[in-house]
Amino acid sequence: MSHASVTHNVTVMPGDGVGSECVAAVRRIIAAAGVSIAWEECEAGGVVFRKGISSGVPRETIDSIARTRVALKGPLETPVGYGERSANVTLRKLFELYGNIRPTRELPGVQAPFAGRQVDFVVVRENVEDLYAGIEHMQTPGVAQCLKLMSRKGCEKVIRLAFEMARAEGRHRVHCATKSNIMKLTEGLMKRTFEEVAREYPDLQSEHIIIDNCAHQMVRYPEQFDVIVTSNLNGDIISDLAAGLVGGLGLAPSANIGNDVAMFEAVHGSAPTIAGKNIVNPTALLLSAVMMLRHLGEFEAAATIENSVIFTIELGKTLTPDLTDPDHAASTTQFTDKVIEHFGRKSDHWKARHYHALNPPRVSPRSDYVQVKSRSIAGVDIFVESPLDAGALGESVTALLADSPLRLTSISNRGAVVYPSSDARVDCVDHWRCRLMPRGNTREATDAQIAEALARIATKHAWVHIEKLQAFDGVNAWAADAGE
Ligand code: NAP
After folding, report:
1. pLDDT score of 421
2. d(CA 69, CA 262)
3. Which residue CA neighbors atom 47 of ligand 1 most closely?
4. Ligand 1 pocket, mutate which of 240, 251, 268 (most atoms under 8 A from CB)
5. What's this model's pTM, rounded to 2 decimal places?
6. Using one digit for the tens of pLDDT, what is the confidence trace for 186-237?
7. Which candidate, 89, 405, 452, places its Cα nearest to that of 256?
């Protein structure tokens, strides 16, 4: 069934709650399929937080993953009061697992809102950038900010991964879902990168879709989708929506892909209410392990296990309580036994895809991945905390800069221009963006001028944040405000 001579080294983290029961089932099934794996069992999550390790991931686990480069992970809880960070996010960041692949496919026999519609698509979510970088600051006591950082390199890696995955799975169409109509620079970067990269994949259809319409289309005509690539927060939301279409999180597998490491996990959490009762459904982790086996080149064993679990679910006789009448449900162990017993059986209504090895995308590791020929500073945005109203603040800043090379051109409040006076009825807060540009015909500002203007403003007002307005290769690299 597998190249038995090859032994794969894999780090396994049973994790919390139902994790150890799911992992035990998966290990038994993989062993029965004849795949030889040397498991390195490691800790992560709750037990680690309770030892006082605030990342939730101890050094031995990190070393093991760095060595094996493949991990199978149970769910990890983030106990309140032990650590600030999620151990899951720590692992993704530590190994730059930039792409999260979440397949959504209707399983025969599973009651779901779209049963019979042949839903079969994959969400490829950027996994480390965007609002999940977790760079947050209270700018004033009443105004919070989270930086949405997206890079060309980060977008390109996940977009190439989506196209390569489409090819490896024999899929035909890749959608890129963004909010580029509103966030023209961040989400727009993903759209522009997608349109450029798509030219290298003429064998695949490519289409951009606005993320809100994507959500709408997913619950109207989900069968139209094949692969959807999207940014981190968008992907977080639509991949759960996708799982809901075909039977819920309990059946949803996922893979986290990096340049050097891949980590496979169920989408669901530790389900503490059912932990230790031998009733958890291990299918989500099992299908994640099927993805792992393909990653390891064990295509035959992957197909055997996948066909068997789908056959067992469709047969409907040995199901865990989440999928059937709890009074007649099977235990996790009984379900696992049946999956092994059904090796070699296939559903008549479900056909496995033909998978090929994924050609891992390679993007230059240079930190200055995007280079330009020219750059200039066109001005500066100085963010100020002030209890004054827009008119009074505008007059004060204008007076402070009276003989400065920079002048106040506008003030906005949460993106809406409020000075010079506008018709907008803005319910202002004490967080103002003062835009300063060079006087007269001068088109460029200097760092020294900005520092001097900042010092003048600071004599009367509390500045909280500044942003240079830059132009790269002559193109303005900032967004206009509403009303500008
Ligand atoms: P959850 O653990 O996914 O569980 C929610 C409910 O879904 C469970 O109570 C159970 O429902 C059902 N369920 C989930 N997986 C199941 C399975 N395999 N078989 C049968 N039923 C299943 O979500 P949560 O309660 O919000 O989160 C619990 C903990 O997990 C939290 O600490 C959270 O931070 C963590 N978490 C970790 C990950 C991860 O490691 N990737 C992901 C999500 C959440 P019933 O109660 O109806 O039986």
Report:
1. 79
2. 6
3. 322
4. 268
5. 0.93
6. 999 999 999 999 999 999 999 999 999 999 999 999 999 999 999 999 999 9
7. 89
3-class SS at 442? coil
d(C-alpha 178, C-alpha 187), whole Å: 6
Radius of gyration in angstroms for the set of CA atoms belonging to the chain, rounded to a whole number: 26
For ligand 1, whether the C-beta of 80 sits within 6 Å is: no
Q: Name the residue of 18, 49, 274 whose CB sits within 8 Å of the most ligand 1 atoms, as the mutation to test its pocket.
A: 274
**Alpha carbons within 13 A on the beta-carbon side of 145:** 13
Strand duo 70-73 + 7-13: pairing: parallel
Q: Whose CA is nearest to atom 43 of ligand 1?
A: 269
For the record, the structure tokens of 475 come out as 């193109």
**Under CATH, which number does the domain 98-249 receive?**
3.40.718.10
Contact 187, 159 (CB under 8 A): no
| Topology classification of domain 1-97+258-357 | Isopropylmalate Dehydrogenase (3.40.718)
Q: Which CATH class is domain 375-476?
A: alpha beta
Any atom of ligand 1 within 6 Å of the Cβ of 271 = yes
Place of tokens 């965007």: 130
For residue 250, the CA-to-ligand 1 centroid distance in Å is 8
